[in-house]
Amino acid sequence: MASTNDLKNGMVLNLDKELWAVVEFQHVKPGKGPAFVRTTLKHVLTGKVVDKTFNAGTKVETANVDKRTMQYLYADGEDFVFMDLDTYEQIHVSGVTVGDNVNYLLPEAEVTVAQHDGVPLYVELPTSVMVTITYTEPGLQGDRSTGGTKPATIETGATVQVPLFITNGEKIKVDTRDGRYLGRS
Fold first, then answer.
1. DSSP 86
2. What pTM did the predictor assign?
3. The dihedral of CA 124, 126, 128, 132: what is its sign?
4. Cβ(140)–Cβ(92) under 8 Å?
5. How far apart are CA 12 and CA 162, in angstroms?
């Protein structure tokens, strides 16, 4: 149990038997009336975002979330297999839990896997990854200075928008949060 005065960004709360991560919080002390804490909470499993207000000093139940650095090994049907780098224990994480992160999940990549009571909650990738372009149309001469983009398929099978001068086989840096091209290696 913790007080609403102890809230921090990233803290996971257990409200009504559901897990909510604190995205943002603000202590408010109006000139009239009691102080309160305004929060933005994100449901850990569904990603739903809600605003919730607590009275200052209210007790809230915190969830014990274990975040560990793991290495992605391979896909096993609908599941993905990760290995704990400390204990070498392997766990299966469902494709639903991995979600859109699969677009930037490279073999042997080190990621953070969050678990609550042994159940994987989410997989957190590094903010950017280096990937190889497997296919893109060639840029036409004269198009290079227009600043346009074209679709390119990367080694994971995902498609990202890249500048026209990028060619097949090049290594590029991609933002894993929004799939944005960040530059060449």
1. T
2. 0.73
3. negative
4. no
5. 37
H or E segment to which residue 74 belongs: strand 66-76
Question: Nearest-CA neighbor of 70 among 56, 87, 57, 58?
Answer: 87
In sequence order, what DSSP letters do the residues of 119-134 get, joined into one string? EEEEEE--SEEEEEEE
CB atoms within 10 A of CB 175: 14
Q: What are phi and psi of 114, to 5 degrees?
A: -100, 130
pLDDT digits over 136-172, tens only?
988 766 655 566 888 999 999 999 999 888 899 999 9
- How many other C-beta atoms are found inside a 10 Å radius of the C-beta of residue 21? 21
Give the C-alpha separation, 82 to 113, whole Å: 9
DSSP code of residue 103: G
**Element (H or E) spanning 97, and its range?**
helix 95-98
Structure tokens at 148: 């346009």
Beta bridge partner(s), residue 164: none
Using alpha carbons, select from 106, 107, 15 the residue that is nearest to residue 52: 15
C-alpha closest to that of 39 among 28, 29, 31: 28
Residue 119 to residue 68: CA distance in whole angstroms = 13
Q: How far apart are CA 49 and CA 38, in angstroms?
A: 14
Q: In the chain, pLDDT over 90 holds for what percent of residues?
A: 48
